[in-house]
């Protein structure tokens, strides 16, 4: 099984998902109504789109995605937008009102009302996973190059430079410095005008840098994939059209920096126990449940940070 199911939740998730599916359609040559003019035979020919799209008997390509929001305003924009005919109506799930930034309201009442419907829709898309995959709890995602259209003509975007950029903090999707940790695994996915010779040379250069370290108990191999189709951009978007790009997924101990702020949960818990702002009976009823969640989260984060610290100390020893 190599199909991917996307689940977009909340205002930000729905809006980002809508933009992503517009990009996917442009890359695969799929029109806003789900039809592919280049595909003359239904169910035959190129099946590269099957990872993200499913083909109906009428030859229409439907995204393998579910959009979920507690209030209908944002998803209504998808229902009435340019790509309104692309999505299956049952995969656009909305409630009647939002949680108004109230965690207890969203977790215990309103959100609980639609969770069964969401799971049912996902269950229809998801059949079975025949190939187990090792769990990577917190993968670090990196993309390069990220440049505007104004700077596109002044940048030298060689394979070596975009590969080096993946190991710089400014290109990380998580706020952490990978130079402060050690890598356990790296996967580099290239697109565009890229040849294996240049990739091998770039990786060989990376291995010689002292600022990029790997753990001793794991091979320093890189998993590499190359898609020779150049990256596609959305017309009128902020990103420039480039000849080549790379996305890296890595497993590194430096991700502990992203969880460090969670250590401040304990002082918050001490203040929260005083109940200085409680005036609503509903909040008082859910106080014990919420405190249990906060305390369990604090314990889990503390254990995670201790484990990563011990792992880093073991590597240094």
TrEMBL record:
Any Gene Ontology CC annotation: microtubule
GO biological process: microtubule-based process
Family: Belongs to the tubulin family.
Protein name in UniProt: Tubulin alpha 4b
Source species, domain of life: Eukaryota
Subcellular location: Cytoplasm, Cytoskeleton
GO molecular function: GTP binding; hydrolase activity; structural constituent of cytoskeleton
Residues covered by the Tubulin/FtsZ GTPase domain: 49-192
Protein source organism: Oncorhynchus kisutch (Coho salmon)
Chain segments annotated as transmembrane: none
UniProt key word Nucleotide-binding: yes
Named cofactor requirement(s): Mg(2+)
Keyword Membrane: no
Underlying gene: TUBA4B
Domain Tubulin/FtsZ 2-layer sandwich: start-end pairs: 126-264
Keywords attached to this entry: Cytoplasm, Cytoskeleton, GTP-binding, Hydrolase, Microtubule, Nucleotide-binding
Catalytic activity: GTP + H2O = GDP + phosphate + H(+)
